[in-house]
Amino acid sequence: SIRRNDTVLRMVMVGKTGVGKSATGNTISGKECFESKFSAKSMTVDCCKFEGEVNGQHVAVIDTPGLCDTRFDKERTTKDVTQCIRYAAPGPHVFLVVIRLGRYTDEEKQTVEKIKEIFGQAADRHSMVLFTGGDLLEGTTIEEFLDESSDLQELVSRCNGQYHVFNNQLKDRTQVTELLQKIRNIVQKNGGSHYTNQMFQDAERVIEEEKQQILKEKDEQIRREQEELKKKLQEKYEKEMEKMKKEVQAELERQRKEREEERKREMEEMNEERKREREQRKREKEEMEMER
Question: Is residue 203 part of a domain?
Fold first, then answer.
């Protein structure tokens, strides 16, 4: 288990741009150490780290760039987020999956899937959902709010039922004390262990295997499409050849018939000529006999 003071509680904040990760880091640390303002653009471009004592507990808080930051491509953002593993060496005790209270959008769902993809399933037992914008509850409890969203219930369930609500507008430190206690409970549940570099490498291996599988499937698809195209071209070629063959045969047949008809006409003409010659000779013979 983890005891206060003698061990650094290492926490990594992950989530989409604009959910209040930097403001949450400032609330936890009690200092303005992370740049935070209301903006659609991520204020954190690279990982940032605060290390110090909070409520008698030595903590390290790592802020990561917002996933789905449109200024950078997916690969760059993923690379920047994975830097946090180095910042949290030898490994974070908890991933704080920061979600702003309100409608759980498709973009946020994609972000959660992206977190799972980057850090792997092993990160689930080292994770907690941290809802920001607690003032939006307005008298409703977080449990009542969760009851209305099966998607959020599923997310919390994936994080072993661990969640906490922050109101970053409040200066009340009770919410921080409660968060630290919940994180200590998670670490205790995990037998004092933290997310390790091996887990991260396993997640990377899974991603690489999936990439290779996708590439293999694409190659297979291209091969199938090429074979299909080849088959269609072969069929088209064979049809064209068959058509040409029939046309050639038809032309040869036409020419043969023409030749036959020509020969027939020639024979008829020859026969006619012979007949005329015979008749001529016959007349001449008759005339000669008459003259005698």
Answer: no
pLDDT reading at 191 higher than 80: yes
Give the integer Cα–Cα distance in Å for 199 and 209: 15
pLDDT of residue 23: 86
Model confidence pLDDT, tens digit, residues 232-255: 999 999 999 999 999 999 999 999
How many domains does the chain divide into? 1
CATH of the domain at 13: 3.40.50.300
Range of the domain at 47: 9-195
